[in-house]
Specification:
The structure holds two protein chains of two kinds. By secondary structure, chain A is of the alpha+beta class. Helices cover 35% and strands 18% of the residues of chain A. In chain B, strand 3 and strand 4 form a beta hairpin. Chain B is globular and about 50 Å long. Chain B starts with a helix and ends with a helix. Classes of the chains: A alpha+beta, B alpha+beta. At the A-B interface, helix 9, strand 8, strand 9, helix 12 and helix 17 of A face helix 1, helix 2, helix 3, strand 5 and strand 6 of B.
Chain lengths: 731, 181
């Protein structure tokens, strides 16, 4: 009896193709064992044409999707991306967009291959697969991966995948990425590489499930149709390419594109960085005690420490190690080891592989050591957990990773490449919108944070959103149609800045006044993980951007204010005075507000902070500060107090004038002040050590260190070595 | 692709237009950048020791009397490069609201019960070398321990005359402090 023919190259099964390529990589260190790449080099013009045709297909596919989808997340903030993959799931080329998911989508294909989909589920031309389960690979359930195989003469020659962040997957309120979710079921619908259609058509029974199951069924289904159309468009262009270039060239060129990028990435690391050991720490705050979770073990506050180390090796590879990370918990913030690759994917395309060639090869020189089992990054109970919000700690980790890499660029003289980023947190809602529909609501407003400073100029204002490099603040008018809100603020917030010789970009707070909402609840939308502790994102002597804040404004008598034409609040002003308003009560919430009732005409405020400044602020060139003063991006208080620059406003010329003598005097005074107030580190160490010995630090921090020590001998050893503690010392 | 030293000086001093900076960012990187960078830095410091590697805006790993030490551009010496230079710096810890509000007023301030903002200054010139924002009780971070021998030998192709074992010497210092305490 003859064996059934496999769907892979030469009649092999896809699993055999996968195993063979992994073996060849392990044996040679070259992708798919390509030790002598020549197909592309033999005819560079042909190779360039080939690459650009695929890239164009992916980008135009993405645009196609935007035309079909009705979601402002797709149209306004670019939360989508496409990739072309090898038969076993290795990324060849990616479109622009939310490139976090490029490797993760491929991991889903690989998972299907490993799990015998070929034999047990069936993979046919025109089959539509859908995935969004981080247990397999992904960030969180709202990120939907639409996956389509590309066949040529009965063989799977590639896959095309599209990711879209959907606004509703049926999760518990507030719905999109609920911080209240702690158990798996609360995340809403999960699709484990589920076949949702065939012959390029979504199954009717799947549509019915969505129509009945989701509040925003129309948006969800339009997103699917947009993604399927995009995938089909790319598939057909790939078939055109195969007709034109030949299938053998297609197969060889696709694999060589990955190997070429792997080699290029190693060369970039060797050209632009310095080998050695880089270290940093990320504190991650999770305040669940007041969150209405029905699984009671979840109701507690914890802080987790995430030590991170990157070793850039002499051979040009880099190893990331999170030894010392604390334990997982019953909350929606535990990333999986694969999610860490998502953070690296998006960071790599903005720091090293930004020439449009980013693919799996960009990641092959990197290794992420498997985090300790039962740590925050590797929870053994992952199948039981809600996974709505693993993004915050991933953002924080890779923000610092960008800073580490930036330090390396700086040391090699490529100061123009230095930067880091930050994220923020805000509000998400559920309730009845202005059209009378009950549904989850999440605003965009992603491109509002200032990016970290560069080593040669100030950071980009409102340009610090890492997830997708091209996002901006979006059209407020579109979100106002989609959400029962009116946007009240588009003013730069000077105190958001990370100060330095070069400052970070300036952030813009969001102030969204609820308008025509009935029955509303609000809760935190968690994009960052800090409230009491600022992230360590100051660069080379610069300060981190100040702490971000979440507020709710409740006017005493809104209607009367309108009738008397009293100005509404529309900017933060001085941070020490914002909570004292004449006509309103201002309530402060930490970065993850528990579920609260909200009412029409209340204002939800996300007071963003920026990433890091670079260098000593008192070395900032006054001309740069004058420009900021003239442009309204800073004020005289900051100019004098932080930068020690004396300036005055020339009413006649309508511009700021720098007082050079006054500036010199202020700066000399600042240096004297520093020397008089600072102490040798040994003196500080003795004082601080005593606090550790006496356990005179907050119990949450004590528990945080205990948690890291529980999982790591190395962390315990180094903690004790730094503080000079006896081996039998316990916190 | 290569740039003149004069243009690189302007780049580092923030004097190029954004359009030119963007061009430099987008173009393939220049292979001779490190050597020109070191030349520029060496011209700018008032002392003769050879710079092996800049660490930040003011500190350099330099070769001095057969040793590799960290040195500030003002001339202050921090000791062996394998020992975290921060241990030889001055520190000002913003560990209460008054000190934090000087930089981060009102709601911009972290909570000092949980967070300490440590400023490390050069004892020689009072330059702010690093701001570290970490949980209270967190050991000082040793940001970067360079593998200088591998760098010069394997990446630049010109090994240094004297080799040094790659090891973290910081804990020798804290052990000494503990013995004194």
């Amino acid at each position: 009896m003859s064996q059934p023919k496999g769907l892979g190259d030469g009649g092999k099964t896809l699993k055999e193709v996968l195993q063979e390529n992994r073996r060849l990589y392990a044996e040679t260190g070259c992708y798919a064992g390509i030790t002598d790449p020549h197909v592309l080099q033999d005819d560079p013009v042909k190779a360039e044409l080939f690459h650009s045709r695929i890239m164009s297909a992916l980008i135009s596919g993405r645009e196609t999707c935007k035309m079909i989808s009705g979601s402002p997340f797709v149209g306004e903030v670019a939360e989508l991306c496409m990739g072309l993959y090898t038969p076993e799931g290795d990324n060849i080329i990616q479109s622009t967009g939310i490139q976090v998911h490029i490797r993760l989508m491929g991991d889903n294909v690989t998972w299907m291959v490993e799990n015998e989909y070929e034999a047990e589920v069936g993979i046919n031309d025109g089959d539509l697969f859908l995935a969004n389960d981080p247990v397999i690979a992904g960030i969180h359930a709202p990120d939907l991966y639409d996956i389509l195989p590309i066949f040529w003469e009965g063989e799977v020659v590639a896959w095309v995948c599209t990711v879209i962040m959907d606004m509703d997957v049926g999760a518990v309120s507030p719905g999109c990425m609920p911080a209240t979710a702690v158990e798996r079921g609360a995340d809403g619908m999960k699709f484990c590489c589920e076949k949702i259609g065939s012959n390029d058509t979504i199954r009717r029974d799947f549509e019915i499930k969505i129509e009945i199951g989701l509040d925003l069924a129309d948006l969800f289904l339009l997103d699917r149709k947009g993604a399927v159309a995009a995938n089909i468009r790319v598939r057909e262009e790939v078939k055109n390419l195969i007709r034109e270039f030949g299938v053998d060239y297609f197969k060889s060129a696709c694999r060589e594109i990955i190997e070429e990028e792997r080699r290029a990435q190693v060369a970039r690391i060797r050209q632009r960085t310095v080998p050695g050991r880089f270290r940093d720490v990320v504190p991650f705050e999770i305040y669940m005690a007041s969150v209405p979770a029905s699984w009671l073990p979840a109701k507690k506050d914890v802080i987790r420490l995430i030590p991170m180390q990157m070793d850039i090796l002499p051979d040009g590879r880099a190893v990331l190690d999170f030894d010392g990370v604390g334990e997982w918990g019953w909350h929606s913030f535990n990333p999986t080891p694969k999610a860490l690759w998502g953070g690296l994917s998006i960071s790599v395309v903005q720091t090293l592989s930004y020439d449009g060639r980013g693919n799996l090869g960009s990641l092959l020189p990197f290794e992420i050591k498997t985090p300790p089992v039962d740590s925050l990054f590797n929870p053994s109970q992952v199948k039981k957990l809600a996974m709505a919000n693993p993004w915050p700690s991933v953002i924080d980790v890779f923000s610092l990773w960008c800073g580490m890499l930036g330090t390396a660029f700086y040391m090699r003289g490529f100061r123009e490449e230095v930067f880091n980023y930050v994220s923020s947190s805000g509000w998400q809602l559920a309730g009845y919108d202005q059209y009378g529909n009950k549904r989850p609501m999440l605003g965009g407003n992603t491109g509002t944070f200032g990016a970290g400073a560069s080593g040669v100029c100030d950071g980009v204002d409102t340009g610090g959103w890492i997830a997708t490099p091209e996002t901006d603040m979006g059209n407020a008018e579109i979100f106002e149609m989609f959400m029962p809100e009116m946007y009240l603020c588009r003013a730069f917030e000077p105190y958001s800045v990370g100060y330095g010789r070069f400052r970070s970009g300036v952030s813009v707070p969001t102030m969204d006044m609820l308008h025509r909402i009935t029955v509303g609840i609000g809760s935190g939308a968690i994009g960052c993980a800090h409230d009491r502790i600022m992230p360590n994102i100051g660069l080379l002597g610069g300060y981190p951007g100040g702490k971000r804040n979440t507020f709710l404004i409740r006017y005493h008598n809104f209607q009367e204010m309108i009738e008397k034409r009293v100005p509404l609040i529309h900017e933060i002003g001085h941070p020490a005075e914002f909570t004292s308003q004449e006509h309103a009560d201002v309530f402060y919430y930490d970065h993850m507000p528990p579920t609260i009732e909200i009412f029409d005409k209340e204002v939800l405020v996300c007071d963003n902070a920026s990433a890091g400044g670079l260098g000593d602020p008192i070395e900032r060139e006054p001309r740069l500060q004058k420009a900021d003063l003239d442009n309204g991006q800073t004020n005289l208080d900051i100019t004098r107090r932080v930068y020690c620059i004396e300036a005055s406003y020339d009413e006649k010329a309508k511009e700021w004038v720098i007082d050079e003598d006054g500036t010199r005097r202020l700066r000399e005074e600042k240096r004297r002040e520093r020397l008089s107030r600072a102490v040798p580190v040994e003196e500080w160490w003795n004082r601080s050590r005593q606090r550790v010995l006496e356990k005179a630090i907050d119990p949450l921090l004590v528990e945080m260190y205990q948690s890291s020590m529980k999982l790591s001998e190395g962390f315990t050893r180094e903690f004790k070595a730094f503080w000079g503690l006896a081996e039998d010392f316990t916190l | 692709m290569e740039y003149s030293k004069e243009e690189l000086k302007d780049l580092y001093d923030g004097r190029l237009t954004w359009e030119r900076v963007k061009q430099i960012m987008s173009h393939p990187k220049d292979d001779d950048r490190f050597d020109k960078y070191i030349d520029i830095l060496q011209e700018r410091v008032p002392w003769p020791e050879r710079i092996l590697l800049p660490l930040n805006e003011h500190l350099y790993v330099v070769e001095k009397d057969g040793q590799r030490i960290v040195k500030c551009d003002c001339g202050y010496e921090f000791g062996d490069y394998r020992r975290n230079w921060k241990l030889s710096a001055l520190i000002f810890a913003r560990d209460d609201y008054d000190k934090l509000h000087e930089v981060f007023p009102g709601g911009r301030s972290p909570n000092p019960q949980f967070c300490e903002v440590r400023e490390f200054y050069c004892p020689g010139c009072a330059s702010l070398l690093k701001v570290e924002s970490v949980p209270v009780g967190c050991p000082i971070v040793f940001d970067f321990l360079p593998d200088i021998d591998a760098f010069y030998r394997d990446w630049l192709g010109r090994p240094l005359a004297q080799q040094a074992d790659l090891m973290d010497l910081s804990y020798d210092t804290t052990a000494q402090w503990a013995r004194k305490a």
